[in-house]
Amino acid sequence: MPSDLTPSDITDFSAGHPDWMHDGESITRTYRFADFNQAMGFVTRVGLASEVTDHHPDIDIRWNKVTIVLFTHSEGALTSKDLNLATQFDAFTS
Fold first, then answer.
1. Who contacts 40 (Cβ-Cβ below 8 Å, separation ≥6)?
2. Which residues are within 8 A (CB) of 78 and not within 5 positions of it... i.e. 6 or more apart?
3. What is the pLDDT of residues 64-89, one digit of tens each?
4. Is 7-91 a domain of CATH 3.40.630.40?
């Protein structure tokens, strides 16, 4: 199924969220924290937001670094669900 995003949507998102890397059909960002506890607190918030939206990222945790990959598996494409979650995740660190 095709994405609900236009190339312009992705360009606009990238301009407003320069830490997210667009790679084909996914977006990826690595967040860095002071320590493991802060990283895990962030992962907990990510998990709760993901459950509320019923849309789940791939998460890699490395001590004080958390890498998030967003891709809508059911659609086989990057969708607005991914951009919306990325925006929520960024708000957790501001």
1. 61
2. 3, 5, 10, 22, 25, 26, 27, 70, 71, 72
3. 999 999 999 988 899 999 999 999 99
4. no
